[in-house]
Amino acid sequence: MIEVNRQGEVWVFAEQHGGRLEETPLELMSKARHLANTLKVKLAAVLLGQGVEGLCPRLVQCGADKVYLVEHPSLGAYQTNSYGKVIFDLIHKHQPQIVLYGATVSGRDLAPRVASAAKAGLTADCTDLQIGDHQTAKEGQLHKNLLFQIRPAFGGNIIATIINYDRWPQMATVREGVMPMPQTDPKRRGEIVKESVKLGNGDLPLEILEEHTRPRKVDLKAARIIVAGGAGVGSRDNFKLVWDLANCLGGAPAATRAAVDLGFIDHDHQVGQTGTTVRPSLYIAVGISGAIQHQAGMAQSQKIVAINNDPDAPILHVAHYKILGDLNEVVPRMIKAIKEKGVR
């Protein structure tokens, strides 16, 4: 049996917009640090932009041994072609074994372009990453220290582990909120590697005249208490019960994809496989059946309270406390009790 054991750094694409680092790549640093330690290699962040050198110290404090810094006027605003070319050139030069991206709008756009150029595999929307070994049946080779890319598949009905043993680097995008934010170490020191880049007119097919961004209406990942409603709430007007309960608890309102699709609330409030992953101290599920796609985004909550009139609803299997009854009766009584007793 032939053993194959490759070397190379672990990289995280340090996505930034307007000189501000996105949260998802910072969350990735904690898992990437663990992967690099397991592999006994260095962890590097890849930072592209213009006038962004001041972001390097935070990346080092979050666990990076190196920061590959590429600054150029043409990289001031994100474009697929220019960013893809720069990252591909860096990969070709430094030969990392793992490259990770946040599953953000930009990350989901950039990662496939780089993977195609590098002729490498890519697993999208991972919820976990591990290091392990794999033996091929046909060749009889034992591939050591591969990246196990773990994600829901078939509509969330199974958890798939995907490996890539014959194309390098191994690449994945990781969903926001599934990795804990790393603790920063102000005393940590790392190496800043400044890379030069040549970009021609063909690398910038678009001219960006103006850029308009809209901040999210709610930060679900930071909320200690979340009250979420599902399709069972019945209507947009009735969804006011979810808002009222959240407000009196000092929490954030949220929803399932079904409730969002029905127009009860906008997408910023969506929790689940295609929404935000949350870990609040208290998660109250109102009129939510609890499909596995929704559970993927909230099952790690410290305490889960489910209000449902269906005793067979899947949400009841993960709930710590179960209230069987009509939400139109239960929720108003909860609100009244909380307001009378001043519960917070």
Quick structural summary:
With 344 residues, the protein is of the alpha/beta class. The protein contains 9 helices and 18 strands. The chain has helices at 23-39, 56-61, 80-94, 105-118, 240-249, 257-261, 292-298, 315-318, 327-341; strands at 2-5, 10-13, 16-17, 20-21, 43-49, 66-71, 98-102, 122-126, 128-135, 141-153, 158-162, 170-174, 191-195, 225-229, 252-255, 282-286, 303-308, 321-324.
How many separate domains make up the residues? 2
Q: Examine the coordinates and then state which fold CATH places here, giving the name of the CATH topology of the largest domain.
A: Rossmann fold
The count of helical stretches stands at 9
> CATH class of the largest domain, please?
Alpha Beta
> Mind telling me which CATH architecture of the largest domain this is?
3-Layer(aba) Sandwich
**What is the H-and-E element order?**
EEEEHEHEHEHEEEEEEEHEHEHEHEH
Bulk shape = globular
Strand content: 25-35%
Q: Strand count, sense and closure of the main sheet?
A: 7 strands, parallel
Class from secondary-structure proportions: alpha/beta
Helix content: 25-40%
Rounded average pLDDT:
90
Distance between the termini: 62 Å
Number of strands: 18
Strand adjacency order, main sheet? 8-12-7-2-5-6-13
What is the CATH homology-level superfamily of the largest domain? Answer: HUPs
Spans of at least 5 consecutive residues whose pLDDT stays below 50 are none
CA radius of gyration is 23 Å
Describe the protein in words.
There is one protein chain. By secondary structure, the protein is an alpha/beta fold. The chain folds into two domains: 2-203, Rossmann fold (3-Layer(aba) Sandwich), CATH 3.40.50.620; 220-341, Rossmann fold (3-Layer(aba) Sandwich). The chain is 27% helix and 28% strand. Strand 5 (43-49), helix 2 and strand 6 (66-71) form a beta-alpha-beta unit. The termini are far apart.
